[in-house]
């Protein structure tokens, strides 16, 4: 298992949080998604075939901006 942590702008409400969670959980290989909207952080636990590029793209497709 691998773990990625992202600081994200745009997690303004529960709807955005749900959209991000659904987009990430739809990726094959993603095991767990933890989102803290107050801090703007997303942690993703995953294994192959999921990749960091796919994870980043899923977050950005929901209208959020990855800061780091």
Please give a structural write-up.
The chain is of the alpha+beta class. Helices cover 32% and strands 34% of the residues. A 4-stranded antiparallel beta sheet has the order 2-3-1-4, covered by helices on one side. A hairpin with a 4-residue loop joins strand 2 and strand 3. It is globular, with a radius of gyration of 11 Å. The model has no long low-confidence stretch (mean pLDDT 94).
Question: Descriptors for this entry?
Answer:
68 residues; alpha+beta; Alpha-Beta Plaits; four-stranded antiparallel sheet; 2 helices; 4 strands
Helix content: 25-40%
Distance between the termini: 21 Å
* Structural class category: alpha+beta
Give the tally of structural domains. Answer: 1
Number of strands: 4
Helical stretch count?
Answer: 2
Q: What order do the SSEs take from the amino end to the carboxyl end, as H and E? A: EHEEHE
CATH architecture: 2-Layer Sandwich
Question: Which percent range describes the beta-strand content?
Answer: 25-35%
Using only C-alpha atoms, the radius of gyration works out to 11 Å
Might you state the CATH topology name? Answer: Alpha-Beta Plaits
Q: What topology, given as strand order, has the largest sheet?
A: 2-3-1-4
Shape: globular
* Average of the residue pLDDT scores: 94
Sheet with the most strands, sense and barrel status: 4 strands, antiparallel
């Amino acid at each position: 298992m691998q773990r990625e942590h992202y600081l994200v702008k745009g997690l303004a409400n529960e709807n955005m949080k749900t959209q991000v969670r659904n987009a990430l959980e739809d990726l094959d290989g993603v095991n767990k998604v933890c989102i803290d909207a107050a801090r703007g952080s997303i942690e993703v636990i995953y294994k192959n075939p999921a990749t960091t590029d796919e994870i980043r793209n899923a977050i950005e497709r929901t209208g959020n901006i990855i800061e780091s």
